[in-house]
Design brief:
It is built from 12 helices and 8 strands. The chain is an alpha/beta fold. It has a single domain (3-276), classed as 3-Layer(aba) Sandwich (Rossmann fold), CATH 3.40.50.1820. It has an 8-stranded mixed sheet with strand order 1-2-4-3-5-6-7-8, with helices on both faces. Helix 3 links the parallel strand 5 (89-94) and strand 6.
Length: 279
């Protein structure tokens, strides 16, 4: 059941299931909280209370009054939700929200007990021409996202998603149809495009200031990074020593929580039980 949290500028939609320690799930740009439809039940079965939130301007969250949708903005929304739900919580953030998880951990250490970043944009993006020439998936992903940003092309967005899901869930076609219907609502595409006007620099600056355990999960076929493993290791290297770890899912793309939910759930459950609980 959808619930709403009123914050400055609008309201955030979320749902909560299960009982136990709190895990908050935050999705990436141009998506909605239902992208965690496979992962959330696995975490609930493992004994967690799971809150999945729509990013501001996305899904069922409100429209129009958000001046920006940056990693810092989303981090503030997540911290407000955790406080409302009676944290602390482990924050699981994908893509842009991975950077938001870092900022939330740095700014509200009393409310964030651990972070899991799935294929995150947490550092300033460094595009490499040589890598684009050599690596087809990286070249195609970069060009398609360029079309989304420059041409405001929904067609390029869904072509990008087709590339970013090298392994399609059984309900992929239905999920994408529902997502396209959501983005076709008046004002929704404009909110999505606000996310492309932000930089990960705020998240990168926060990496040295986290104090909780962190796990970065990367898919080796993610089209957003020339070398996903190197990106994950680079993020961890900028955290305080001993806090971060990288896990790779071979063959996985940018949406590991929907492509490989069982593997991602196992990684998160182990991380929370073995590292967060002992921190």
């Amino acid at each position: 059941m959808t619930e709403f949290l009123d914050i400055e500028g609008g309201r955030i939609a979320y749902d909560v299931t299960g009982e136990g320690p709190l895990i908050v799930l935050a999705h990436g740009i141009g998506d909605r909280r239902q992208v965690y439809r496979f992962l959330a039940p696995e975490l609930v079965k493992a004994g967690f209370r799971v809150a999945a939130a729509d990013m501001r301007g996305h899904g069922e969250s409100s429209l129009g009054d958000w001046k920006s949708i940056s990693r810092t903005d989303v981090a503030g929304d997540l911290v407000a939700l955790i406080r409302h739900l009676g944290g602390p919580a482990v924050v699981v953030g994908q893509s842009l929200a991975g950077g938001s998880a870092t900022i939330a951990a740095a700014t509200a250490p009393d409310l964030v007990s651990g972070i899991v970043e799935i294929n995150p944009f947490t550092r300033k993006v460094q595009y490499k021409l040589g890598s684009m020439l050599r690596i087809r998936r990286y070249r195609r992903g970069t060009l398609l996202m360029g079309g989304v940003a420059a041409l405001h092309s929904m067609k390029d967005w869904f072509r990008y998603l087709d590339l970013a899901y090298p392994e399609k869930p059984a309900d992929y076609a239905a999920y994408m149809a529902a997502l396209q219907a959501k983005l076709s609502e008046p004002g929704r595409m404009a909110e999505f495009l606000k996310t492309l006007k932000t930089s990960p620099a705020d998240a990168g600056d926060s990496l040295p200031r986290i104090s909780c355990p962190a796990l970065v999960i990367m898919g080796t076929e993610d089209p957003d990074f020339a070398d996903p493993q190197a990106e994950g290791e680079g993020i961890v290297a900028e955290m305080p020593a001993g806090l971060g770890a990288v896990a790779l899912i071979k063959g996985g793309g940018h949406y590991l929580h929907a492509e490989r939910p069982d593997e991602v759930a196992a990684l998160i459950i182990s991380f929370v039980r073995e590292r967060v609980a002992r921190a």
